[in-house]
Amino acid sequence: MTLELSSGKRISKKVAVSLAAVAALIVLICAGVVIFQLTSGTKLENKGIAVYKKGSDCIVRIDGKDEVISDQSAGGFKLDEESNRIFYTVESASGNDLYDLYYIEKRRSELQKPRIIDVGIKKEFDIISGKAYYLRFNDEQRAYDGCICDIESNQIETFSSNVESIFPLKGSNNLYFTKMHIDNRVLYKYENGEASEICRNLTEIYSYNKTDKPHIIYETKSKINSGMTDLYIAYADSESYLICDNTYLVRYDDYQPGGNLYYFTSSSENVSWSYVIADAYAESDKTVTKPERNDFFSFFGISQEYNEALKTYQDKLIRDEIRTVLNESMINGDFSAPIFNAFAYNSSGNYKVAENINPEYVYTVSAFGEPKIIYESTQVTQSDTDMGTLVEIARRSSMDEVLEYARSVVSDSIKSKGMAYAAYGKNGIVSSELSGYDKTKTLFSFGKQGGRIFAVVRESGGEKLSLYTNSLDEKLMPSAEIGIDTGISSYRFIGDGIVYLKSDINKNSGDIYYYDGEKQNKISNAAGAFTIENDSEIVILKDNDVSKPQPVANYYIYSEKEEKLIGSDVVVSTFNYTDDGKAGFISDNDGKNSFIVYSGGKSAVIDEGVSEILLLN
Fold it and tell me: DSSP letters of 515-579?
């Protein structure tokens, strides 16, 4: 139920009302107007952009004006924030798995009817600074053309054929795209109307536009070391910069634009199989040659010495074949004791963070601040297996079996020395043991800004968690662990602090605390769950009801040391939160499914009978 004011603003209110107020409300309803406001104060301005489903239709709303899209296949809604245009696709009649691209915009205070951009495109597309980037199917070539449409001028440019993927960068005059040449992925740059090849043998590529400095990061097969890659970064309107030409692994999942990008390189002390498996014949076999019969011929025929020399030579051939197989496997990067160096790249340069570690046993890294890493320190020991054992396996089985057995021996030779911490600071690399923790029960994390270590330990019963922290001094060295709390159900990081829920095992709700690095403060009670939005807003759920077909809860926001109710009976799966602090959700509201928007301390009903929120801004 909604109230449309002469100013075009909608408001909502939930208060205890008298009979007179009820009567007044009935009058408003009869006039086709309804008020729903959760908070007091000024009216919620009727501005903003939303797309939502109502029945079988999609409703596009821009500043209080609605446009109905009846095509049930409409989807993939995206907003160009600079022009406030909304883009979407519908299934195309031009072929299976092809789509037509449309947009809706507001002109002269009115929403225009949907306008088509192009037909027969791939479903994925990008909208950046008033331009649409997409792949259009070329029926003659049976491949995709790369296209750019300038929406304002309605001009479409086909910049290349047989395009695999497009990577436009916000604020850039160029874009990157890939093509496949047989089984070789090639990266191109499109600039000033011309495409130029950047590199071949592309293995990975990622683009990052939600940052002050949009960029791509990519890898190619190394020109120097087989099994390794060359790691590059390219900022908008800049040339590619080589980060490393000997990359083994990049931790993309831990990377946040503007922060630390962690990668691992092969150590100069990388241990081969021969360090673990003794090869007593390595030097003597170099002098063993094939025996000549005539050299061993006597009056009585071929001598016993020849037979022994032949066997020695045949054994040498088997050992040489084993060495070749193991060395080739090691050169290909898939067989050696995994000892690598950890590096971090950020806007200030490249930094070695830790030496001689196994990337598989890295537990966490610091996304921001000085590069830091927590890992399991290991050492490689010699085994009891020698070359003779491998020869025996080769004789009775195959070289594949020898390789598999040797791999297992090398793997088993890696022994743990315990948890360790390392960082790169003003004085270079610092490292320390991280004692006192059981690695089988502990999850490590750094604070959002990297200024503190947190350890979450599963308690003996397995139902709850205990929370610990290690502070870092000015030299980045960790203190001994400090206990924060026990009986924790869930937690989230915020800044260099942590928010956590503490509840009894037999209760569905509990108290929420915020630990700022010095002490914990209770910020809410009777809470069933919470989440962190935009790294600053704490959203708290209370009165959770999971008995309904779609679980609901009452939603609160804790900000500036105050808890505010923003929605009752909110369908949990529908909650949306924007970058500028606007919340949108569907309230069950006795089955009316009200679409509500909360902004600036006020909440208002946008529409009723809504089943899904597709876009909110």
Answer: E-SS-EEEEEEEEEEEEEETTTEEEEEEEEE-SSSS-EEEEEEEETTEEEEEEEEEEGGG-EE-T
What is residue 24's DSSP assignment?
Answer: H
What one-letter code names the amino acid at 411? S
Distance CA 371, CA 388 (A): 46
Burial of 68 (0-12, 13-18, 19+ CB in 10 A): exposed
Question: What distance in Å separates the CA atoms of residue 376 and residue 439, rounded to the nearest whole number?
Answer: 9
Place of tokens 């598999």: 404
Q: How is 478-510 classified by DSSP, letter by letter?
A: B---EEEEEEEEEEEEETTEEEEEEE-TT-S-E
* Structure-token pair, residue 87: 């883009």
- Helices and strands of the chain, counted as H and E runs: 5, 44
Q: C-alpha angle with apex 437: 434 to 442, nearest 5 degrees?
A: 115
- Name the 3-class secondary structure at 299: coil
Q: Decide: 614 and 586 in contact? Cβ < 8 Å.
A: no
Q: Which amino acid is at 167?
A: F
| Separation between Cα atoms, residue 519 and residue 510, nearest integer Å | 19
Q: What is the pLDDT of residue 402?
A: 93
Most distant CA atoms of the chain, gap in Å: 132
* Low-confidence residues of the chain: pLDDT under 70: 1-46, 268-271, 293-303, 333-338, 505
CB atoms within 10 A of CB 194: 9
Could you report the per-residue pLDDT of 516-540, keeping only the tens digit for each?
Answer: 998 999 999 999 999 999 888 999 9
Give how far Cα 371 sits from Cα of 260, 299, 315, 428, Å: 7, 78, 51, 11
Q: Which residues contact 153 (CB under 8 A, 6 or more apart)?
A: none
Angstrom distance (rounded) from CA 591 to CA 241: 57
Residues whose CB is less than 8 angstroms from the CB of residue 322 and which lie 6 or more positions away in sequence, other chains included:
387, 390, 391, 394, 399, 402
Token pair recorded at residue 120 = 């027969």
Query: Tokens 């403060």 sit at which residue?
Result: 521
Contact 548, 531 (CB under 8 A): no
The CB density around residue 347, as the number of other CB atoms within 10 Å, is: 9
Q: What is the DSSP string of 47-80?
A: --EEEEEETTEEEEEETTEEEEE--TT-EEEEEE
Quote the distance between the C-alpha of residue 598 and its chain's center: 28
Pairing of strands 215-221, 229-235: antiparallel
* Concatenated DSSP letters of 336-367: SB--EEEEEEETTEEEEEEEEE-GGGEEEE-S
Which pLDDT value is given to residue 471?
A: 95
Beta bridge partners of 615: 51
Integer Cα distance of 564 and 584 in angstroms: 15
Sequence-distant (≥ 6) Cβ neighbours of residue 605 within 8 angstroms = 1, 2, 10, 12, 34, 36, 594, 595, 596
Task: Identify any residues that bridge with 52 across adjacent strands, giving them in sequence order.
Answer: 59, 613
Q: If you count them, how many residues does the chain have?
A: 617
User: What pTM was estimated for this model as a whole?
Assistant: 0.82
